[in-house]
Structure formats: structure tokens, C-alpha cells
Amino acid sequence: MISVIIPALNEAATIADTLSTLQPMRERGHQVILVDGGSQDNTAALAEPLVDSVLCSTTGRAAQMNTGAAAASGNLLWFLHADTRMPPDADVHLTNALYDSEKEWGRFDIRLSGDAPALRIIERMMNWRSRISGIATGDQGIFIRRDAFERIGGFADIPLMEDIDISKRLKRTAGRPLCLSHKLTTSSRRWETCGILRTMTLMWRLRLAYWLGANPSDLARQYR
């Protein structure tokens, strides 16, 4: 069984659309858990009929995803962002590829939802960089076998870069990720709202600072 774990915070505008893409998975016997981080809107109420469980947690993706993993029943944990949508057969591709490869973790390629030509370049760079580095981002739908997740102690309790951190630890203990070419579609709203070039520059600067040892709490304030 796959347990899909979705951290959410004030996602009422998009959560129903995201969860609707997961209903074929639920019909095939997989589990969907939404972990709310203290939403001030009706995210949890909208999600309740479309998931197997709604949990509450302190705010922060790492804490929320660890809460979901602790309650999950599946032997494969799949972490999805609340603004990421998947094709209806993504779970089939995932289980087949993971079984054939015998890898312990991995991620999907992504497509940004907007139509701007620059976004096509950025998404290709993101997918290419991940293949070269063996580092996955949360937008790419990281999936991990439960025993590998528990072996490394789950996500680090940091307010940003939790996806980079867990990728680095998984690389050391479980090897490089399985990179699936099937695409998840993630929202480009931040890119479009804040400006494509400005957002790209910010992301690169924050990641470089993290690699150089910056405090994730300081980076989180800059990100917000």
C-alpha cells in the first residue's frame, strides 16, 4: 500500500482539485492523509470527504509530514505538496518502477502549471539538476520506503530545506533516487506572483546559502 501524505496550510482554494486527482488511487486501495498545519480557512473541512484521514499538526512541512508518516499504514510513503496534481495512474507507474529498480526512494519529474515559455526552461532545469545531483525537491513528489524513512529518522525539524536535507541523508544511506520521467504538475503561482526571474534568483540564492551552512530558520524568513 502507498500512503500519500499531504501537508497543507490555508489551501482551501486548491485542495479539492488536488485531492480529486488522488481518488483513483484510493479506489485501488491506497491511503491518502492530509495533515493540516493550523489553517485559518476551511482546508480541513473541504479535504475530509476526499481523504482517509485528516490530522492536525504544528505548522511546518517537516513536522506535518512526520505526523502523517507516523499515522500511515502503507509500506511506501509518498509526500505531495497541496498544490501538486498527479496523473490518475501515477501510482501504477511508481509501484512498477520501484519494484523493478529495487531502489528505496525517488521522485517524479515536474511540470510547472503556467504557460509562460520561461517556465518550460525552468522545469527542465529542475528535473535535469535533480538527475545530476541526486537531490529531490518537495515539488517533485518524494517517495520513500517506510523502513528507509524510519532508518534515517524522518524529516529534520527545520523550517525550510527539509527536502534537500532528507535527500542528502537518503543518498548516504540508501543510494541515489529513482527518477521517474512521468510528470507531476505543480503550481507556478509563486513564480507568476513574484516574478519568474526574481523567484528563480531567490531559490538559487537560498539553496547556495544552505549548502554553505546558513541557518534554515534565517532562510525561511527570507523565503517568506
Structure description:
The chain has an 8-stranded mixed β-sheet with strand order 3-2-1-4-7-6-8-5. The longest helix is centred in the middle third of the chain and has 17 residues, at 117-133. Strand 2, helix 3 (43-47) and strand 3 (53-56) form a beta-alpha-beta unit. The relative contact order is 0.15. The chain has one domain: Spore Coat Polysaccharide Biosynthesis Protein SpsA, Chain A. By secondary structure, it is α/β, with parallel strands linked by helices. Helix content is 47%, strand content 19%. The chain has helices at residues 15-20, 23-27, 43-47, 61-71, 90-101, 117-133, 146-151, 162-174, 189-194, 196-211, 216-223, and strands at 2-8, 31-36, 53-56, 76-79, 84-85, 105-112, 143-145, 178-186. The chain starts with a strand and ends with a helix. Helix 10 (196-211) runs antiparallel to helix 11 (216-223).
